[in-house]
Amino acid sequence: MPVYIFKRLLTLVPTLIAASVLVFLFIHLIPGDPAAVLLGDSATPEEIAALTRELGLDQPLWQQYIAWISNVLTGDFGNSLFFKTPVLSVIADGAETSVLLALMTMFWIVLLGIPIGIWSATHHGTWIDQVTSGLAMFFASIPTFWLGLYLILIFAVGLGWFPSSGFPSLSDEGGFTNLRYLILPSLTLAAPNAALIVRLVRASMLDVSREDHVRTARAKGLSPATVAIKHVFRNSLIAVAAAFGFTFAALISEAVVTETVFSLPGIGRLVVQSILRRDYPVIQGVILVIVVLYLIVNLLVDLAYAWLDPRVSLQ
Known about the structure:
The protein is mainly alpha-helical. Helix content is 73%, strand content 0%. It has two domains: 57 residues, no CATH class; 217 residues, MetI-like fold, CATH 1.10.3720.
């Protein structure tokens, strides 16, 4: 196992180099001049040219890339052109919201998706299976912004149970009680993702239930619940583990619609705002961090395979 992890970490190096080059080039292909955006419409050409030289944007792209990646290797992602603060500090401010939102969303996904998926699979072909499958397809297809707005209308405006927008930091007044701000956004994100997990758990369990060892377990007289949990569900966890890993990574980077609906200061919203501001250092930093997150999740999913199924050999 340690040898496999070391080999995988070595393979991450060329992947990160290629990703950094693509990120840098794509960001600099975005139309618009950062200096002109920062100075506003009233800026003169001379002022724009002076700021461009000050930011180093007048240098060839390869020189800008070398300077940027050299600083990144030392842990310096540069300063935000808009906030005038270190990029890592800007990312950290949004990361708290995005990570907590992703964790709470994963809680709802596990709480709802797995039990309902098991229930649907163990009642395959019955009206229970038809109803749960239909509801899963419905929630998987509805737009998150539509669901979020209705949750706000019902539970924030109508009943007044939860806040409708914003998220104070856990370090602010209120502490962990501030997590109530994330309940409606997390349910909004959890609905379509939990529906997909329901379908995945159901399909995986139905595939495993046709295998020989399951028929042997039934022939031994084991109870249906024991067969379903210990022999069917346990052996269907590999596909589910992969889905959970990449769902968590996607929730951090792709929750921009939900963050916009609920006015959350998260990573997704930060990326969109930085693109509009032509804040190159922030965009590059966020995307590179997300790439690293996906690579780490991919490694953890591979390790989970070996833990869940001893037959999987990692070499």
